[in-house]
Structure formats: structure tokens, C-alpha cells
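Entry 14. Structure prediction run on the chain below.
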Amino acid sequence: MYASSARRPPRRLRPALLFSAFLSASLLGACLGAGAPAAAAMRGTVAGGGTAERPPVYGLAGDFLCGRFAVAQSDMNRAAEYFERAMTLDPRNTELVEQAFVSALLAGRPEAVRLARRLPDNQAAQLLLADADAKAGRWDAAENHFHNLPRQGLTQVLQPLLVAWAQLGGGHVDAALATLRPYVEGQRFRGVYALHAAMIADLGGRAADAARLYRTAQTEYGGTNLRLAEALASWQARQGHTQEADDTLRALLEGGDDFAIALPALEAAVMRRPIARATDGIAEAYLALAAALRQQDATDFSMLLLRLALDLRPDFVAARMLLSDIEQTAKHYDAALAILAPVGKDDPLSAVVRLRRAALEDMLGHTDLATRDLEELSREYPDSPLPDAQLGDTLRAKGRFTDAITAYDRAIMRQGEQPRRIAWPLFYARGIAYERSNQWPKAEADFHQALELAPDQPAVLNYLGYSWADQGTHLSQAKQMIERAAEQRPNDGAIVDSLGWVLLRQGDTKEAVKTLERAVELQPEDAEINGHLGDAYLAAGRKLDAEYQWRRALTFNPDKDEAAKLEAKLHELAASATPTPDSAAA
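Output returned:
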């Protein structure tokens, strides 16, 4: 973690900040009242600069609490303003300075550099100051800054890369390669160090070294990622090995299907160096470590590194995509969308970014805008199934099954010779849309087609098996399918529920109850699963337990049809328990 996380409160506050809980709650309520304009301001200024309106004044404690609230909302512009104002009221409080600095850095605000000068022990602050020297061409000062970073924790990995790029910036190619040589020959992160050494040799005109180091990077990575593919393919193409470059870029499809739509643009830009100057290399180093940290769930420091990368290179689309993904995972959809906003249509990854923007617009409730964007992409990229596939998913999620089927039809028609991992989800998704629109024969055919392409896909096995069980047909085959799915995903509540459901349909009430109880443990707030357990309890003669389970299911916001079924079961149960006049007389 970095020295002062923007996502946790300071370790201690001065006594002046320790007001009553009532006052704190009142101030937080005021922050909540300012939340909507704050979010709106953030959308327009997330890349840098202040918000259009100054936030209200609440005093030291209030500004601090509102700053924390703004952080929780991922409104770093507003957080930076609140923390800096609190800092001016308590200027010797280093932790407030750190909060203001981190918020300013994450918002891309220019005062981050000024605040960094007050934090000699903060690693992120020192990195930003070194980057400022690099941008100004003060390469000796940048190198000294990087050299003086403490050799501990994550800095141990990052420091050699930064020093080497600073040396290249200063014109010292041999020194830069010498700095990285022990790390390329070492045991840890050899692929990363080899790739950066290769790019340094490439920029520095050391062709033989570059060729050797690119080969090492390709071997040591053990797989292809976007940045390795772009750098390696560019080198291969510039050396006249166009087929190798094409193969390198096509290998990207093994790691992420959404790159398929960008492949022609990536191929068209292959002669362009992905790293044009030393500052680009420093940004690349930040991205490499940020990606590694993201995989380890260290998202706070990953976000700081990505902001450092974008400060050096605002057009760094790969960094924007990763930072947006982090915000999306945290459900900060406005922030995720704003981060992608500067990416223009001329960038090779533009189509990928536009697909992600459409998904974010839908998450924000702007489904009409999302569908218009996807339809536009579909027209612009007639050879790609991806826009129509995403459009189908968007429409299906909104219950517009007929429109979704039309979109899936286009996607399937366009898929051509796509790998099976791309093709089977289209048939599976269209099958769901058919099933939900009461076109079972067509749905069943699509599920079978999906299983022909991917015979062991647990999602398809489960959906088809459950559908058969729900219809009371092919119960033995349905059970076998669901068991195959459960072997792959033993802790998936939906699959365990399907297994319990088919057992109930087969009349094995005891095992059905046991299995459905486990499904509820795995997904305790799923209305349908709780409803199924109620059905099993009724079959076992446990009417009171059944009533409780159905009523519990109603508290979990079931869809309209499911709610109606639950209400009907409760009504029928109540009616069966009400004595008739004849039975009362008897």
C-alpha cells in the first residue's frame, strides 16, 4: 500500500476533530445533500482541474468528513478541495496533507505537485516529483529522485525500471541497459525487465540487443498481453517480419475476445512505436506494476500508479482502460466512464473502449444511449459480432427478448470462423432469450448447438438441465448434465439449486431438501432458490417451514412472475389450512 491511502481514514486526528457523533452525522448529512452536484462536477473534470462550483464550508471536522464521503463516492476532485481546505485550518497535520495529495493525484489536479513537496517520506509524492523533473527534461534530477527511493516493498520492483528510463532520457543508453541487465538475468519478473530493456535498446538504436531482449521477454512472459503484443509486433514489423507481427497480434485473441474488434486497427498501426520517448517508458513501468497489483487486489496503489502514468502520458489508453476497470469493479460507474471519455476514434483501441463505454452507460441506467452506441458500432464494424452480441445482452437484461434475439441473429451471422469460445456464448444467450419469450423448441436447439461447440460448459449444462427438470422431461439426462456442471462449480448456488430441483422432480424429497438447503446457504438472498426450498419442504410435509421459506423469498425482490407464483402458493397453503363449515360442525 502507499503511504497514505485515500480509502481509509488517518490513523489519528487532533483533538479538535473529535466532535460528537451527532455533529458528525449532521455534517455527513450535509455532504449527502451535496452529493449529486459533486458527482456531476466530477464527470466533467475527472482528468484534471477544479470543479465548477466551490463546495460549501463546514469547518475542519466537516470538511474532513465531507472529503471522506467524496472519496467513498470516487469524486476525487471534490475530495481534494475538502481536504485541502481542512489542511489550511490545520496546516501542520501531515496526514491531512497526505489525504489532500492523494485525492489531488487521483483526480489529476495540478496542485498534487505542490502538495508532494511537503511529503518527503511519501513514495507516491516522490515519484510525482521525479516525473515532474522528467517532463521538464531534468533527467539527472529525475534519476536522482528515483535512485533515492527506499529499496523496500514494491519500490524494489519499480525502481530499476524508472532509473533505466531516466538514464535513457539523459542519453545514456548503455548505462540504462547496464542498470537492467542483472534483473533480466535474475529470477523475478524477468519478462517485465526484458521487455523494458528491449524497448530501451530499440529506442537507443541497439538493434542486436533489442532483438535478443524481445525474444527473452516473449519467452519469459509465458503468454501475450496487450502491451507485450504491441511492442513485439511493432519491432517485428519494423524489421520486415510482417507475418510474425500479424501472428503476435492475433495471439491477443487468446487472452481477451474484445480485442478481436480492434485487431484491424492494431495491425494498421503496427509500424508505429508504442514507446516514443523516455517518459512513455516511465508510464509503461507504472502500468506494468499497476496491472500486477490489480491481480493481487491491491487496487489503491494500482490506481495511484495509473494516475502517475496518465500524468506523464494522458493519451495512454491501456492505462485508462485498467483504471476504468478498477472504478467499475468498485461500482463507481460515473468515474469509470469519465476516465474513458478522452479516448478518440483515431486510437487503435477505440472500438474496445466504445464497447466498454456502452456497458457503463447501461449500468448507469442510460440504456437508450447504450443501445444507440452499440447500433452505431454494429454499422461501423460489420465484420465483428461483438457490438451485436453486447446489444443482445443489454436488451435481454431489460426483458426485451424479441429485440435481443434479432441482435443475436446478426452476431451469429457475423461470427464467421470465430474460435469456439466466442461462438458458443452467442447460441447460449440467444437460447435464453428464446426460452424467456416462450419459444422453447428454438431455445433447446440453441442450447444443443452451444454444447456442440463447448460440451463441458457448466452454464449451458445447468440451464438446459434445469429447463428440462422444470418441464418434468428428460429427468435422468437433466440430472446427469447438472451433476457435470456441479463437478466444475461445486459452490455455485444456482447449479446446486438446479440439482436440488431435479431431485425433487424425481421424487427424492429427502435429498432434494438437503441439496436445496445447501443452495440457500451458498446464495441466501436469492428469491428463486428460497422458493424452491419452500417447495421441497412442502413435499416433505413441513408446511410451516414451507410458508416461512416462501415468505422469506418474497423479501428478496423476486421478479413479477416469481412473486405471483409465491403469493399463489401462500394463498393455496392458507386455504388448505382453513377449516370448512362441514369439518367445523363435525
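The first helix runs from residue 21 to 33.
Filed with the rest of this week's runs.
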